[in-house]
Amino acid sequence: MPSFRSVLAPITLGLLLCVSASGCDKKGSGTKTPRGMSKEDVEAEKEKAKTQAKVNQLIVQANEALGAGRYVTARKIAEDALAENPDNADAYVVLGAANWRAGDFDASTEALRKAMELDPTNFGGGVALSRNLRAASLYDESLAILEPVIAAESEGFQGKSCEQLEDCEEVGGWCDTEAKVCKPPVLVDTRAAQLWAYYMTLDTEKGPAVADEVFLGGAAAADVTNDAIRGYADFLRAFAGKGELVVIEGETGTGDLGLDIYTGLTHSFAVVGGEPSRALFSPLQIESRIDKELADSLGLEPLGKTALLNLGEYEVTLIPEVEFKGIKIKNVPALIDDLAIFSSGLPDKAGVILGHQALHKIGSIVADYPNKSLTITKAAPSAAPAGAAERPLVMLDQWSLHVPATPITIDSSDHTIWAWLGYANASAVTLTAKSYLKSGHLPREIENPEDPDNGRKMVYVDQVSFGSVTAPGMGGLVYLEQPGEPQLAMVRGFSGFELGGFVNVALLEQLKVTYAYGQGKIWIEKP
């Protein structure tokens, strides 16, 4: 969990009052007061100190509750702390973390923004807000938030010149052997937050530099974190000096459109490096991929290797061009892979997958699923299409995957459910028991599940709403608390964010969706 600076600071009444007789005058009947202060001033300072001590204790309790998974309790305690002191940044950090765990993205981001307004150097707040901003595709802002936090890490550090690592041991830092100067200790959480943003935006200079700082600076980190950092850095290094990556040529492109019932992935005809092929669009995969057979056919040379967390080792290459009618996507960094596993619902094996890194650079992808047509634009839309509902698209970072999520409601309920957008369950919509019951349904409605071993109950959903756009009457599947839905549990366990279900292929087929990944938005229409 995040650490909180002010909680660790010693706060005692004695420090705030008088610590030596030399600084005090004697007034009245034996009451000592600091020189220049009235008795009323002293009492006011004493009350202020008591309040601050109480607030700090509440923050510790809220943080402990959050660490134990009791986010409702943590949120209530944080609110109590803010009632005592509405200007306490750490209380807002805990509130933001609790709201994140509850699946309230907007409230979480609002609380964390407030924390950073009050204390721009707050470590826990900076790391958490950076995560939220990356999830909303606000990568530049996520990096800017971290700058004062990282600057504060070196406060009080006395640097000196150095030649080798050992030269900085006495000052507690590390030697930058290129700059030949001792630098302060590196905290991995802030640097990892930087690298995740640089990785998504394909910054081949700053990303590896951050990774070098982590390893040369001896930052304490879990093995899994080190593995993720190393894999990201190796991927970026392979494309250093290769020019601008993911370049869009042309204003508008068009194509046919399919939706794979086995993977939930959108696909279209494309010409890859001059070869006709099938292109998949997958924000779930961070990196783009090219099928090994196609890469060999095009004579694409591997530029390096990377071992990605939970995914394995891959050779990487640069796809020269992916062309749709009217638009070209050039210089696409990609993993070389066998794409058969991604092509189970296609007549032929896909040649390329455009992952989140590439999709982020495209202005919009308009998927008209009922009419099976695709439109790609270089520029992002300036406004929603007429009659469309604008919804946020949050990308939940699993380090090896990015899970696309958007808010929905069911059956005219006001309860918001964050759902994984584009899954391949057989039903139109899949829900957790918690989200289904919070949407106005009764426990008896999910008794006697048809699949008791897996805890699955079939239900009829009157409507699924994306803001003002509603899709009526469809089959749903509810996962009971035990054993639960494993993919949703995976996301919740890693990211800490409460996902309540899936929007599946059967529902997507009814919709026209404009994906604006670079803006963190989608627009939904019901043709």
Question: What's the Cα radius of gyration?
Answer: 27 Å
CATH-defined superfamily of the largest domain? Tetratricopeptide repeat domain
Give the termini distance in whole angstroms.
45 Å
Number of domains: 4
**Sheet with the most strands: spatial strand order:** 8-9-14-10-13-12
Structural class: alpha+beta
- Average pLDDT works out at 91
Assign the CATH topology of the largest domain: Serine Threonine Protein Phosphatase 5, Tetratricopeptide repeat
Largest sheet, if any?
6 strands, mixed, barrel
Fraction of residues in helices?
25-40%
Task: Count the E strands.
Answer: 26
Return residue spans where pLDDT drops below 50 for at least 5 consecutive residues: 1-31
Tally the helices: what do you get? 16
Tell me, what's the shape? globular
CATH architecture of the largest domain: Alpha Horseshoe
Please supply descriptive tags for the structure shown above.
disordered N terminus; alpha+beta; 6-stranded antiparallel beta sheet
